[in-house]
Design goal:
The chain is 21% helix and 33% strand. It is elongated, with a radius of gyration of 37 Å. The relative contact order is 0.08.
């Protein structure tokens, strides 16, 4: 026995190998040698006695007999890679044809010196045959047509010799020994029945997958927005209604799911319900249809719940009221009341609502860092989340419409993402300047993305909560983009995100009393929809927008040019009373969109005015 084997034997014996184990190892000798050759990448084609015994026993090794088994698959989602591959293969075949066609024009001297392709074909007559996959150019009757997406799935295989392959490339009939060109039978493309059935199955699965994707998209859209805006909608900024029933600042605007009416809450302690269909048309009226003023205190938060059949409002005195809204009646019934301990939890700063199927959850966040889920069907507290106080005071939060996570913002510029399934914080992102978060929106279709407005520079940032990157910034300020030292006092307090098939846009409004339309696809189409009341009407400024990359972040900046010269002369006398100013005279607190026969923008301001635009 060799020294190396002797050492191995002694080592195995010392580790407890018995004669029984040695017999088992000897029985597996062929298998271990075969496994060793496979791991070492051995290309030996000799078969062992183990394979012979297996064949004698009726066991057939497919890999040994047939070689590598071809794995076939088809992507349910078609892409453009197949089209690019087909185009490249066509260019290569044309190049080969040009190269080989040039050889046919060689004279006899060149052929004698360097040879010709005819001689190569004669030498390869007796070469072994190869397998080539050929795709029929015409669709089979009763089958789906061949598309670029399914060209890479199932293809019929034909056996073709080298001479036939070379002749196909040149476009001439192949030359085979013993068979004349006239007697040569044409090559026919054939496909087996199993491959035909597989192709039909893949075609059906692709159609079913497309229908399922469309249904899922429609379902998610309905969860987020029951009536999305039309694809070609562009706000004109024309004032439709001027509503001034509130006697103090209007804090929130909410639109019902069916868009029949919208509600506003104010610091005067009242909640007003407005009929959206009577803002326009022949039966126009500028009065609210219902008013609820029994809660007391200043109403800070408002939302619709239970499929818009009820309204929830939160006051700074710690009370939360849920009352019903009936379409055919002006009667208001209080359904639920909840009192929040202000000394322990703090004031309610924001609310959200979602229905899990088994629970109807009203979520409210308090300034001291508590997020409480209140089940309206029980009614009782379903769960409570406690945000870390070192992140700052909660200012705003948003629950994703799929109910899997929520994001909140604090007074110290921190964004915290919570997993709703396990009720645990996942990630934390802090703004570079530590500016106070004013408002947060969860993106409906781009997972893990939020839109956050912070204090100063009218800044709105798009954050990816999964990677922690700030991917886009909307900057409507004269300060340098992404500046941490030079800031303006203006900030965005209201946002509305619109997602259509052709465009994504964001409506913003804030302390500068302007309503902006941000085109998230083409930044040059962004514009100011409604200016402030104190903006110079006779000398409007030239505003443009440009997009650039700063520190791997896309920044859409608002640029101001010189005022345009006006043709209006002030000395010309005017007839009739002066029309009221279209813009707001005070800070815009919230913005929303509803539609009846057309889309309308609703804005509210700190002076108690509600305006409707189209």
């Amino acid at each position: 026995m060799e020294e190396a084997l002797a050492q191995l034997y002694r080592k195995l014996t010392s580790q407890g190998m018995t004669e029984k184990d040695e017999d088992k190892a000897l029985a597996l000798k062929d298998f271990m040698l075969k496994l060793h050759r496979a791991r070492a990448g051995s290309s030996e084609s000799s078969t062992s006695s183990f394979d012979d015994d297996a064949q004698k026993n009726g066991t057939l090794d497919i890999l040994t007999v047939c070689g590598n088994v071809t794995r076939r698959h088809a992507d349910l989602l078609q892409n453009q890679k197949a089209e690019n591959t087909t185009a490249v293969s066509k260019r290569k075949s044309k190049k080969i044809q040009r190269m080989e066609s040039s050889s046919s024009t060689m004279n006899e001297e060149w052929k004698h010196m360097f040879g010709s392709l005819e001689e190569d074909r004669e030498k390869r007559k007796m070469s072994p045959k190869i397998s080539r996959k050929v795709e029929p150019t015409t669709p089979i009757k009763g089958n789906p047509p061949t598309t670029p997406g399914n060209q890479s799935m199932v293809q019929p295989s034909l056996t073709m010799s080298m001479s036939q392959l070379q002749a196909n490339v040149e476009g001439t009939p192949p030359i085979t020994a013993g068979v004349s060109r006239q007697d040569k039978a044409p090559i026919q493309n054939r496909i087996s029945q199993c491959k035909l059935e597989l192709r039909n199955l893949v075609y059906e699965k692709r159609e079913q997958y497309a229908v399922d994707c469309m249904a899922q998209t429609l379902t998610e859209t309905a969860l987020w927005e029951s009536k999305p805006v039309p694809n070609n909608w562009k706000p004109k900024g024309v004032l439709v209604a001027h509503l001034h029933e509130h006697r103090a600042a209007v804090n929130r605007i909410q639109v019902s799911d069916d868009h029949q009416f919208f509600a506003t809450c104010s610091s005067d302690g009242s909640v007003k319900i407005w009929d959206g269909s009577k803002i326009e048309g022949k039966s126009i009226t500028n009065r609210s249809r219902q008013t609820y003023a029994k809660q007391g205190g200043q109403i800070k938060c408002l939302l619709f719940c239970d499929n818009s059949h009820s309204v929830a409002s939160a006051s700074d005195n710690g009370s939360i009221h849920v009352f019903s809204v009936e379409t055919g009646s002006n009667r208001i019934n209080i359904l639920h009341t909840e009192h929040v301990d202000v000394s322990e939890h703090g004031l309610v700063v924001d609310m959200s609502y979602f229905d899990t199927g088994s629970q109807s959850i009203l979520v409210y966040a308090t300034v001291h860092g508590h997020m409480i889920g209140w089940d309206l069907r029980a009614p009782r507290v379903a769960w409570t989340l406690r945000n870390d106080s070192k992140h700052g005071l909660i200012t705003s939060f948003s629950v994703h419409h799929l109910q899997s996570w929520l994001a909140l913002g604090t007074s110290s510029g921190t964004h915290v993402c919570w997993d709703m399934r396990f009720q645990l914080p996942i990630t934390t992102i802090t703004h570079p300047t530590g500016a106070r978060v004013r408002h947060i929106l969860a993106h409906p279709f781009e997972q893990s993305k939020i839109l956050s407005s912070v204090q100063g520079n009218n800044e709105v940032s798009e954050w990816d909560m999964e990677t922690g990157d700030r991917q886009r910034v909307l900057w409507a300020s004269t300060a340098p983009p992404l500046s941490t030292t030079q800031t303006s006092n203006h900030s965005v307090s209201g946002m509305y995100l619109g997602v259509t098939d052709n465009n994504n846009f964001l409506l913003t409004a804030g302390s500068d009393m302007r309503v902006r339309y941000w085109d998230l696809i083409d930044s040059t189409k962004s514009r100011i929809v409604v200016g402030a009341a104190n903006d110079p009407v006779n000398q409007p400024a030239t505003v443009s927008y440009r997009s650039k990359i700063i520190e791997s972040t896309e920044v859409i900046q608002e640029l101001y040019g010189k005022p345009k010269s006006s043709t209006v002369h002030e000395d010309i006398p005017r007839w009739g009373p002066d029309a009221p100013s279209q813009g707001h005279h005070d800070m815009i607190t919230d913005i929303n969109v509803y539609q009846t026969t057309q889309c309308f923008i609703v804005t509210s301001s700190r002076d108690g005015v509600v305006k409707v635009w189209k």
